[in-house]
Amino acid sequence: MRGRDPVTDATPGPADSELQEILTQVHAQCAADRRGEVASYIPELASADPDHFGLALATVSGQLFTAGHAETPFTIQSVSKAFTYCLVNELLGPDELMRHVGVEPSGDAFNSIEFDPTTARPFNPMVNAGAITVVGLVYRELGDGAFEFILDRFSRAAGRRLDLDDAVYRSESETGHRNRAIAHLLKGIGVLGGPVDEVLDLYFRQCSIRVTATDLAWMSATLANLGMQPLKDDPVFDLMAVRDTQSVMYSCGMYNYSGNWGFRVGIPAKSGVGGGLVGVVNRQLGMAAYSPLLHATGNPVRGVAAFELLAEELGLHAFCCTKLGSSIFERFLR
Ligand code: GLN
User: Fold this and answer.
1) What is the dihedral of CA 125, 128, 129, 133, to 10 degrees?
2) At a CB cut-off of 8 Å and minimum separation 6, what does 144 contact?
3) Would strands 269-271 and 228-229 be described as parallel, antiparallel, or unpaired?
4) Distances (CA, A) of 200 to 140, 178, 196, 280
5) pTM score, two decimals?
């Protein structure tokens, strides 16, 4: 368990061990699920081990619980979109941001080449068209310093210095023709904040930041903790931007599974084709999973199944109405 302060924290009490037990059980229940495929459209991602499966929960009070491959590195991919949206919201403010990208679920695949017919803008920042637009705005504001800005804030949220997976970055850079097409269309409609090549380079770099499930749990716990990194008391994200980010994660974070996700799991979330998945339980905890076997929607199969079980077991659904459900998690909070 990382993150416990040996001086101020008491020995784990029964609630801690109970939460750890639930996580271990959920991990065991989902580990045998072999459904799905490892992403291969970015060639370097195809080498991921399909047996890898990790879970991590980080509370806003600084506790960490893990199961399985929680320390195995992988690339953040589209999980990054939620965090960069939060950053650009802070840089530009929500009104200016809304002029470039909307907050409407598209009901389409993450890489679909289409815009909202009423606004002629990308539907939302969680699909590629919206995320490339968001990255373009960071580039417009910060130019060559944009990647370091993103990496620094992601690192502060994770509580440790993150780095770039150079092989995945080069692999996507060489093969990302569909994203190039999207970026040219965005340039054509006037929402791309910089030259196509520079903006795409920044997007591919952002997607290739290397993380573990534990890092993602701390990053989402920072959102859950209203922008403050729980272990470091570091104000990483802007408060109002955190609210907007969680809202759009709730409605759009799981692509064309978002409606089902909101219904069944009820937690703001974001997935990535590297196998990462985060969930934010506002003011309570950050959740993360790593499993590279993906459903056709691009969401990690075991991660989705595990979050569903955890939401049920711990009463985490935003609209949970059983007294039992909501009180279960309260027992784990201090
Ligand atoms: N870098 C990937 C892409 O743009 C991210 C997609 C994803 O994780 N869904 O295709």
Assistant:
1) 60
2) none
3) unpaired
4) 13, 11, 6, 28
5) 0.93
Best probe residue, ligand 1, of 37, 40, 41, 42 (max atoms within 8 Å of C-beta): 42
Report the pLDDT value the prediction gives residue 322, as an integer from 0 to 100.
62
Dihedral sign, Cα of residue 168, residue 170, residue 173, residue 175: negative
Distance CA 54, CA 213 (A): 6
Cβ–Cβ < 8 Å for 36, 96: no
Q: Count Cα neighbours of 60 within 13 Å in the Cβ-side half-sphere.
A: 17
147 alpha carbon to ligand 1 midpoint, in Å? 17
Tens of pLDDT, residue by residue over 257-303, are: 999 999 999 999 999 999 999 999 999 999 999 999 999 999 999 99
| Spatial CA neighbour of 207 closest among 143, 140, 275 | 275
Sign of the dihedral through C-alpha 2, 215, 310, 85: positive
Of 157, 165, 110, 69, whose CA–CA distance to 296 is shortest?
110
The domain segmentation of the chain, as residue ranges, is: 14-333
pLDDT for residue 148 is more than 60: yes
Is 207 a residue whose pLDDT tops 80? yes
CATH class of 14-333: alpha beta
Six-digit token pair at 159? 């509580």
Contacts for 302 with CB less than 8 Å, ≥ 6 apart: 30, 31, 33, 36, 53, 289, 291, 293
Identify the residues whose C-beta falls under 6 Å from ligand 1: 77-78, 110-111, 128, 172, 179, 207, 272-273, 298
Cα distance between residue 242 and residue 226, in whole Å: 6
